[in-house]
Amino acid sequence: MVSQPKPNPRMRLEIVHEDARIVVANKAPGVVSEPGKSHRDDSLLNALVARYGGKLLQLGERRDYGLLHRLDRQTSGCVACALDPDAYDLVRSDFESRRVDKRYLAVARGRMRQGAQRIELDLEERRVPSSEGTRLVSVVRKGAKPAVTDIEPLATSATHTLVACSPQTGRLHQIRVHLAHLGFPVAGDPLYAEGSRLLSPQRDDDRTLGLHAWKLGFPHPDGGRVEATAPPSRRFLELLGQCGISWSG
Fold first, then answer.
1. Is 166 exposed, middle or buried (0-12, 13-18, 19+ CB in 10 A)?
2. Under a CB-based contact definition with an 8 Å cutoff, are residues 47 and 204 in contact?
């Protein structure tokens, strides 16, 4: 559940899809999706409420003020929001039923072989000690919840690979854990290392995580489809350059 967000018109808001019922924003890296203990008025939802006001507030806490899903703080890209109760219920059902197409860009450490492949590794959520008390993470464990990610390398350098990732399930940190387990952890990941070994969880910092929610597609409540594409952030593109990857997008 989300506490009622206050509008914050000072926050930058990039909209990549907008109609009378559905909005998709391009969340910047370092911005949280919704208000929380340390981010009461600087979340993406605070910016959305500043723009759409009563349409979101009328949805209330039960419908998360329209927010249909979330991204981790350092993950940038597409986040969808509904502007009326029926739209929320319909699209949220699509998210829960895995009828939403998600495509991410990941900058992975290491040179991956060419060709599409599917990762099928069961994941289990666990709480582990961290500098902030405890933190929820995912670990690979046979017999836990099924997790499936389709991946395809797009470009490589001597040290890194740009990978298109399509998660077929929605487990916590799924792409990050799956790539790390293969031996190609996401660049800048403060949590998961090669072999999905868990690093000592510390407070989130401002390093650039090489993960971007690039494309999002789902049925529109009025028929047809929403197909949104979020251009990668300046920080993500700078990371590509630092890793020696040339990609036209």
1. middle
2. no
**What does 65-104 look like in DSSP terms, one character per residue?**
GGB-----TT-EEEEEEESSHHHHHHHHHHHHTT--EEEE
CATH 3.30.2350.10 domain span(s) along the chain: 15-97, 102-217+232-249
Q: What whole-number percentage of the chain has pLDDT above 90?
A: 84
The pLDDT, as a whole number, for residue 3 is 66
Q: Domain 15-97 adopts which CATH fold?
A: Pseudouridine synthase (3.30.2350)
Instruction: Specify the pLDDT at position 200.
Output: 67
Residues of the chain with pLDDT under 50: none
Buried b vs exposed e over 119-140: b needs ≥16 C-beta within 10 Å? bebbbbeeeeebeeeebebbbb
Q: The domain 102-217+232-249: what is its CATH number?
A: 3.30.2350.10
Output the DSSP codes for 166-183: EESS--TTHHHHHHHHHT
**Catalytic positions:** 72
Q: Which of 244, 226, 235, 190 is nearest to 81 (CA)?
A: 226
Give the model's pLDDT for residue 203. 56
**What was the pLDDT predicted at 194?**
86
